[in-house]
Each structure stands twice: as C-alpha cells, then as structure tokens.
Amino acid sequence: MKYWYNGSAIAGDQIQLSITDPGLIYGATTFTTLRVYQSLDHELTNWKGHCDRLETTIADFHWQSPNWDNIRSGAEWLSNDYPVLRIVVFPDGREWVAGRSLPVDLAERQQKGITAWVAGSELSRSLPQHKTGNYLAPWLALQTAQRLNAQEAILTDLNGNWLESSTGTLWGWKDNGWWTPPLVDGILPGLLRSHLLSSLSNVIEKTWTPDLVWEFEAIAYTNCVMEVIPIHTVLDRETQFQYVADHPSFQLLRECFTV
Going by fewer Cβ within 10 Å, which terminus of the chain is more open, N or C? Predict the structure, then answer.
C-alpha cells in the first residue's frame, strides 16, 4: 500500500499527524474523490472540476492554498495503481492523496440495484455545500444501514424530505423524466450531479417530500466512483418502498458516461 503526503511518496498505510492537528481533532479538511478513466486528463475523470471544488472550499474557509503541482504529482503517481483517488487538503495547505480499488461488487450493484435505509434528520450532512472531513453523520447513517442489511443510507431533513444518499445524489423517474432534489434543500453540489444536469433533458429539481417519493417508478443514486446505482428497496421505519431496478430509463443516465 502507498500514498502521497505533503510532497512525498510514501510506502505503507500509516500517516503521522500532530495530536493538535485540526484535521485530526475536528475533521478540518476538504476532500474530493475521483475515478480515473484512462488518465487524469480524460473528460470523465474531470480533473479540473475536482481541483475547482477543492479551491472553492479553500477560498471560502480562508485556508492556505496547497501546492497544486504536488497534488498533481501525487495523483499521477497513484493513478498507475489505483482507479479511485481521494485528494485531501488540510487548513495549512498540506495535501494527502490516497488510492483504492473499485468495489468488487460494483457491476452487480449497477445491474441488480441495492437496498437503502432512510436515516433520521439528526444524521444530515454538516456544511452540505462543501465536502469536508467532518463526515461523521453520513458515515454513521451508512453504518446503521449496513446493520439493517441495506447497502446505502438516505439522508433527510427535519420535515422528512429525502435529500441525498450518504455518498451520492438521488435521482427519481416520474412522468417520463428524471427528478432530483435542489441544492437549496441542503445537499452536496456533486460534480457528477452537475454533469448529468447538463447532459440530460428536462430534469426537474424539486424537493423530495414524503408524498413525492411514492410516485417514482425508479430511483437511483450517483457519484463519481460508482456511476449509477439503482435502488430497488427503501426501508423507512415500518414502511417499505419498492422500485424497478431494471427500468429502461436508467439507460439515459448510463449514456452520460460515454465520450
């Protein structure tokens, strides 16, 4: 195993941080996770989009800008061995790049779909407009979902509206079109979400109320690593929702991954 940290290529799975590091104590980091399609410069990899995401958060938080050449070098080095890269920036500008493999059951999830569990509003994302290291609430939601034999969690607001999954954007098929929650509801402005919005026709951005979610024929979540994952079953306390996992509308989403 190997990773890149603060300008250096490192072999191993241990990183050395100060016990006073705010990244360790408060989760004070920003990060982005990308999938390498052939190279960092491939259109679907969206290297610039991921760097822009980091840069926006760094500027909004008034953090020190990192050495972007170091980030690129670390990503290039790791992309030779890993198809998924996680780029982290600390408040003082230190960078950390780690790699991982795609999930071994990714193809099965993409084809057959998964079960999701609806979390309570107390597990909603912190600072949802930014991707920060304070990921405790979504992580706890996912852990609970897995204990209930579900593979993903759906985050909600105080009114019970569905916001996003613990790791991606929600999409629902209704009235011959795709629907997705709007950013104003407090969801992460995902890079793949932006790509799909610009690629699809007539997407409706509307709050996913408890009544609306009954009306969808099919739903899925998306992110830059997993692409499109249909959700066939949703567990919500005593209620169970069933959706079509092989709905033909999913092809419209999948076509957005061809260049």
Answer: C
> What is the domain range of residue 201?
106-257
Instruction: State the CATH number of the domain containing residue 90.
Output: 3.30.470.10
Q: How far is 50 from 258, CA to CA, in rounded Å? A: 19
18, 24 Cβ separation under 8 angstroms: yes
Shared domain check, 208 and 121? yes
Model-level pTM?
Answer: 0.96
What whole-number distance in Å separates Cα of residue 128 and Cα of residue 187? 5
Q: How many domains does the chain have?
A: 2
**Cβ neighbourhood burial of 39 (10 Å; 0-12, 13-18, 19+):** exposed
Of 149, 192, 148, 150, nearest in space to 170 by CA: 192
In this structure, the answer to whether residues 183 and 231 fall within a common structural domain is yes
Q: Per-residue pLDDT averaged across 185-208, rounded?
A: 96
What is the predicted pLDDT for the residue at 48? 98
Residue 219, token pair as written in the block: 């739903």
Average pLDDT over residues 206-229: 98
Q: Which pair of tokens denotes residue 195?
A: 């790509």
- Of all helices (H) and strands (E), which one includes residue 193? helix 191-199
Q: Is the pLDDT of residue 258 over 90?
A: no
SS (H, E, C) 122-176: HHCCCCCCCCECCCHHHHHHHHHHHHCCCCEEEEECCCCCEEEECCCEEEEEECC
Domain identity same for 91 and 126: no
User: Which structure tokens are listed for 93?
Assistant: 């500008």
